[in-house]
Write a structure and sequence with these properties.
Blueprint: E1 2-6, E2 9-11, E3 19-20, E4 25-26, E5 33-35, H1 37-53, E6 58-64, H2 70-79, E7 83-87, H3 94-108, E8 112-116, H4 127-135, E9 139-149, E10 152-159, E11 162-169, E12 172-176, H5 188-194, E13 199-202, H6 233-242
Parallel strand pairs: 1-6, 1-8, 6-7, 7-13, 8-12, 9-12
Antiparallel strand pairs: 2-5, 3-4, 9-10, 10-11
Helix pairs in contact: 2-5, 3-4
Length: 247
């Protein structure tokens, strides 16, 4: 069985976010980059767990980005990927990214494609569905459990007020979230092995992006806290009426 796991480079959640050029570009100065947590902790680890049960499983990682994405790819290989493909282009358009990955998926004939439910920078949640549409495969989003028996997958996902369980034949695209697997840390053996695992660089397909970013804007700064003396009820009532905002 061949599994394709989509991974992406995102800023660490502790990074200070700023924008340059009049709010049109993300300022990368001093930013620590990591594997998108939903891709790493859930999609990739679940693929590794499937390989641990069946040695015939192979795991290929795919990412869309420049050479600065190589370190996060190597970390993913250290966790347990067998090989990686980097599509040598950069874009914020989810259709463009999905189309690039779909081209890899078609060429590789993968049985199963895992993505994280979303990236923590753009929070778009659209890559998995885009890939599935372009390769004409079933798609199940927001999976919390994934089991495989032969070529049939049983996927559990949360819905309003409960859970939904679906059975579907491979090939299949699944986006993963908390519950599918537990975070792992690369060991020294994996880190050393990752240095020699294949990392192939593909040039991008000719695909037209459908969107472009016009500008970024930080949320407004939090207002200061106003303290009211316990015996000054009138002032508290005035503030609640005149200055407090509904949440």
């Amino acid at each position: 069985m061949k599994i394709l796991v989509c991974v992406s480079k995102t800023p660490d959640t502790t990074s200070k976010i700023a924008f340059t050029d009049g709010g049109t570009k993300f300022d990368e100065a001093g930013v620590q980059w990591i594997i998108n947590p939903y891709d790493e902790w859930y999609a990739l680890v679940r693929a590794i767990e499937l390989k641990e049960k069946d040695a015939s499983v192979s795991i290929t990682l795919v990412t869309v980005g420049g050479a600065d994405a190589d370190p996060i790819i190597r970390k993913a290989l250290a966790l347990g990927g067998d090989e990686a493909i980097r599509i040598n282009t950069d874009s914020s358009d989810s259709y463009y990214i999905g189309a690039q990955i779909a081209a890899v998926a078609k060429a590789g004939g993968y049985d199963l494609i895992f993505t994280g439910k979303e990236t923590i920078d753009y929070n778009g949640s659209s890559i998995g569905g885009t890939i599935a549409e372009l390769i004409d495969a079933p798609y199940i989003s927001l999976a919390t459990k994934f089991e495989l028996a032969g070529t049939t997958a049983t996927v559990t996902r949360e819905i309003e007020g409960g859970e939904e369980v679906a059975e579907v034949a491979l090939p299949l695209v699944v986006s993963c979230q908390k519950g599918v697997a537990e975070q792992r840390i690369p060991n020294m053996r994996g880190i050393m092995a990752a240095r020699t695992k294949p990392l192939k660089v593909n040039e991008p397909e000719a695909v037209e992006a459908l969107t472009n970013i016009v500008s970024f804007e930080l949320p407004p700064a939090k207002a200061g806290v106003k303290l009211v003396a316990p015996d000054n009820v009138a002032e508290l009532v005035r503030l609640l009426h005149e200055e407090a905002k509904a949440i």
